[in-house]
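Practice problem 4.
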């Protein structure tokens, strides 16, 4: 004869006893963010990977479910793209830069920010005549 398994849980502040013949304990997963100070800073993530701090985006297990490596990789690439391309446009707007200012600024190749420079160049040049190293 098997003895019942007994588990005491707290549900909405009230202690309850659950009796069963079998008990499965699954610890689950949790974000590995200890020590970064997120809790103290009150940082929470929305559905766009943004936090209340406009300088902080999140990706990976710290955004919640689903906790799969390919979801973390996708989220990381989204956050990295939001940071690279928007940075230059934000600075241009903030400091009132002209299209010509963007054109005359050095842009390292193979970045999305360089694409913004090429877009600015097309205001004065035919895009069909540009090379990959347009100036």
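Answer key:
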């Amino acid at each position: 004869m098997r003895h019942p398994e007994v588990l005491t849980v707290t549900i909405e502040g009230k202690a309850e006893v659950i009796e069963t013949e079998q008990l499965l304990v699954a610890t689950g997963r949790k974000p590995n963010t200890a020590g970064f100070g997120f809790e103290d800073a009150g940082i929470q993530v929305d559905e766009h990977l943004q936090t209340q701090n406009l300088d902080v985006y999140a990706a990976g297990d710290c955004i919640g479910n689903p906790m799969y490596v390919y979801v973390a990789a996708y989220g990381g690439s989204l956050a990295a793209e939001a940071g690279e391309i928007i940075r230059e446009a934000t600075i241009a707007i903030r400091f009132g830069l002209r299209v010509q200012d963007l054109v005359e600024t050095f842009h390292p190749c193979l970045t999305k920010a360089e694409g913004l420079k090429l877009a600015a160049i097309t205001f004065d040049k035919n895009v069909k005549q540009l090379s990959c190293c347009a100036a």
